[in-house]
Design brief:
17% of the residues lie in helices and 23% in strands.
């Protein structure tokens, strides 16, 4: 199961091409925390965005809310749920 998942991850990475030069392997190089809490809007430790970078030409792109939600559940907030 683990090998099958690793294979799927590799195939997905190869399918992602750089928007600038078309080179395969355009992948996440940094995950940035700070997804705001749905109640208080304070930043949480959850991922707010991913930064992608091309290994060939260096083109970078940031994608907000990679997990599909623009806010975090208050149970994940250090301010609302200490």
């Amino acid at each position: 199961t683990v090998i099958a998942q690793a294979t799927q991850n590799l195939l997905q990475k190869l399918r992602q091409t750089c928007p600038s030069c078309g080179t395969p392997g355009f992948d996440v190089v940094e995950r940035m925390a700070g997804l705001p809490c749905a109640w208080c809007q304070m930043p949480t430790a959850l991922v707010r965005s991913h930064r992608y970078q091309c290994k060939k030409c260096g083109f970078q792109q940031e994608t907000l809310y990679p997990n599909g939600s623009p806010t975090a559940d208050p149970s994940q907030c250090a301010h609302c749920n200490p």
